Amino acid sequence: MKTKNRKNGYSANTAKQYVDQKQAIHCLSTEFEAQIKFEDGQPTGEIIGHKAWFSQKGLPPFQVKFESEVTLPSYLAMVDFDGLEACEVGYNVYFRANNIKEVK
């Protein structure tokens, strides 16, 4: 996703500008991608987060990072995020959330 505004740091308000929490969000990932910590441009092997892909009508697929281990819902399940925040860096938008749950 490309940025709409340029602000620093993660914020729930920034996430609301991109993702409509009232519309269905679907899980596109079947497993998490580990995010590895880097120091001096080199990977340390330490896992600092887990990322998964999601979609919403009218948006390109977007990735959300979880810093703690959460359970990933099944493929194409409708989901809801706990504490979804976004951060704009350059012309990109990065998302993170505290947790995820499947919506029945």
Describe the structure.
This is SuB0782 undefined product 764400:764714 forward MW:11955. By secondary structure, this protein is mainly beta. The chain is built from 1 helix and 8 strands; from the N terminus they run αββββββββ. It has one helix at 12-18, and strands at residues 25-27, 33-39, 42-56, 62-66, 78-82, 85-89, 92-96, 99-102. A hairpin with a 2-residue loop joins strand 2 (33-39) and strand 3. The model has no long low-confidence stretch (mean pLDDT 90).
Under the CATH scheme, which class?
Answer: Mainly Beta
Structural class: mainly beta
Q: How many beta-strand elements?
A: 8
Global geometry = globular
CATH topology: OB fold (Dihydrolipoamide Acetyltransferase, E2P)
Sequence stretches where pLDDT stays below 50 over 5 or more residues: none
Helix content: under 10%
Which assembly state applies to the chains in this document? Answer: single chain
Q: Mind describing the biggest β-sheet? A: 8 strands, mixed
* Count of the separate structural domains: 1
Q: Output the helix-strand order.
A: HEEEEEEEE
Mean pLDDT, all residues: 90
For the record, give the distance between the C-alpha atoms at the N and C termini, rounded to a whole number.
Answer: 28 Å
Q: What's the architecture, going by CATH?
A: Beta Barrel
Q: How many helices?
A: 1
Q: Kindly provide the radius of gyration, computed on alpha-carbon positions and rounded to a whole number of angstroms.
A: 14 Å
Strand content: over 45%
Q: What's the CATH superfamily, by name? A: Conjugative transposon protein, DUF961
